[in-house]
Design brief:
This protein has 307 residues and is mostly helical. It folds into two domains: 3-216, Alpha-lytic protease prodomain-like; 222-306, Cation efflux protein, cytoplasmic domain (Alpha-Beta Plaits, 2-Layer Sandwich). The chain has helices at 3-28, 31-60, 68-73, 81-109, 117-145, 148-176, 186-201, 206-216, 222-239, 272-286, and strands spanning 243-251, 254-262, 293-300. It has a three-stranded mixed beta sheet with strand order 1-2-3. Helix 2 runs antiparallel to helix 6 (148-176) and helix 5 runs antiparallel to helix 6 (148-176). It is elongated and about 95 Å long.
């Protein structure tokens, strides 16, 4: 299964779960289920956006498959959209969870509300099966793809599965205490579980958001910079250059590297084929898939051009 194929399946299943959550939430009187449905709906919207960006990135690396307008307006590719989507996704999910947490606290303060636990249990069981199945399929698929989008989607399914599992346990407990001396707990079960789920969910996207912003801001990855420096230093020693300058960033799945080698002014001239051969050797040493690599290698005798 391709990245786009998995995301399409994920979108369809997410919309199904969202619709199921909103309907069952309203019928059962459970705001935690409604939250789960709205959360899934927001996730579906972000997955659709991720699918669009993924498709653009794939088409941009296939020559002339893009329309002329897009090709002329985005000559640097679409890699920069990937961290934007990932960051927006994380921020949106955190915002929804914070809003739900505030509502849950207010509900608890006002005495809770009655919930139809039987219908809620049916919803939680169906949704948990869907979440586990999609996470399992995603993990198997991403062993080959190693896609950030698929990885994010897997985390979303696992988060949804964890939320639903907590809801299922709570609903079973609420049903168990019904018509017992502990029945006073019933109105508090749903808002308390919702609050706990939100407290767990809110920090989960923080890592993805931090990574996305580091890529948007073009913060140089330490390990990648060290690798490029090592390759460039070996080239300087091998070819007799004076020094080099390296500029490195990672934007989404793309590795962006600019290398400037400073050659001595009295170095004998070489045919262009030899300079291209140096570029080929440096590019092979740096590695990475060419379709996801933006590599610029220049040669100069004036260090000012490399700064």
């Amino acid at each position: 299964m391709t990245e786009q194929g998995f995301l399409r399946v994920s979108i369809a299943m997410t919309i199904f779960v969202a619709a199921l959550g909103i309907v069952f939430g309203l019928l059962s009187g459970s705001f935690s289920i409604v939250f789960d449905g709205v959360y899934s709906l927001g996730d579906a919207g972000m997955t659709i956006l991720a699918l669009t960006v993924s498709s653009l990135i794939a088409r941009s690396t296939q020559g002339d498959s893009l329309p002329g307008v897009l090709r002329n307006r985005f000559t640097m590719g679409f890699w920069h959209l990937e961290p934007i989507v990932l960051g927006l996704n994380g921020i949106l999910l955190m915002a929804v969870a914070i809003y739900a947490l505030i509502n849950a606290v207010l509900t608890i303060a006002h005495g809770g509300y009655e919930t139809r636990f039987d219908m809620a249990i049916v919803y939680a069981t169906i949704t948990l099966l869907v979440c586990v199945t999609m996470a399992w399929i995603g993990c198997r698929t991403n062993r080959r793809l190693r896609s950030d989008f698929v990885s994010l989607d897997i985390r979303a399914w696992m988060m949804s599965g964890g939320i639903t599992a907590a809801l299922l346990v709570a609903f079973l407990a609420g049903l168990a205490v019904k018509d017992t001396p502990l029945s006073w707990i019933g109105p508090y079960v749903d808002p308390v579980v919702l609050a706990l789920v939100c407290l767990v969910v809110i920090p989960l996207p923080v890592g993805a958001v931090r990574q996305a912003f580091s890529e948007i801001l073009l913060i140089t990855p330490v390990e990648l910079k060290a690798h490029v420096d090592r390759v460039a230093a070996e080239c300087v020693e091998r070819e007799g250059f004076l020094t080099y300058r390296a500029y490195v960033a990672k934007v989404g799945r793309a590795m962006q590297v600019e290398l400037y080698f400073v050659a001595p002014k009295d170095q004998p001239p070489k045919p262009l084929e030899e300079w291209d051969g140096i570029r080929d050797r440096v590019g092979a040493a740096i590695g990475g898939e060419e379709k996801d690599r933006w590599l610029t290698i220049a040669f100069t005798t004036d260090v000012a051009w490399a700064e």
